Amino acid sequence: LEGVGAINFLEFANFLNWKDKMPIGERERKIITKGNATNDDGCGLVAHEDIVPLEIGSSVKTLRTITRKEDKSNGHYSKSSSLINAVVGNYSPEDFPTYGVPTIRTDLAAPRFRRISDTINYGDEATATALLNPSIFAQRQVYEKDMFLGRSKEEMKQIFCKAGVDMTRGTFEEVWKRAAMRHLKGEVSVETFREVLDETQISETLTC
Predict the structure, then answer these.
(1) Cα–Cα distance measured from residue 206 to residue 208, given in angstroms and rounded to the nearest whole number
(2) pLDDT category, 206, cuts 50, 70, 90?
(3) 192 pLDDT higher than 90
(4) What is the mean pLDDT of the chain?
(5) Which are the contacts of 46, defined by CB distance < 8 A and separation ≥ 6?
(6) Are 89 and 97 in contact (CB under 8 A)?
(7) pLDDT of residue 58
(8) CA 201 and chain centroid, separation
(9) What is the DSSP pairing of strand 51-53 with strand 61-63?
(10) pTM above 0.70, yes or no
(11) Are 103 and 110 spatial neighbours (Cβ–Cβ below 8 Å)?
């Protein structure tokens, strides 16, 4: 609103055109520039120079966009990525502050004991999904590394028997033999044994 309580037509049209610019026909152009709708000064709602082409070279007209000081200040900014990519070697990102989740360092072995100041992600940290919805293994304090540790035959039998997996002695020996062939040193983990057992059960199921 202006000081006299009337609506500024150009600003109101900019408010309506915030997303898509509305075209103005010849009849509308005559009305808002002179014609019937006039303000107290006897002038049109907008000046002739306030009507501009909708696009460059287009015959379709629309109202011009008002540019304010804050629009100019917000429009003239640069990002660090644009500075780096503008000229190769001109800007170094070494002095820029880093944010976000660190890169997983798969090239480094996770230490057995980690210091509090050690912020390196070795790939052994839980994801947001695992924190919000922990698995039954995590609830029993059984972690991923425990599933890949080498086990003895007796220990493997106890684990799968207590888990309720029924298999014959011959099936156990066959699965153990095939699982040991997947490791250079012949070690068998719970995860490897489970994978081979699943493959064996699927092949037996599909046999007609």
Answers:
(1) 6
(2) very low
(3) yes
(4) 76
(5) 9, 10, 13, 32, 33, 63
(6) no
(7) 76
(8) 39
(9) antiparallel
(10) no
(11) no
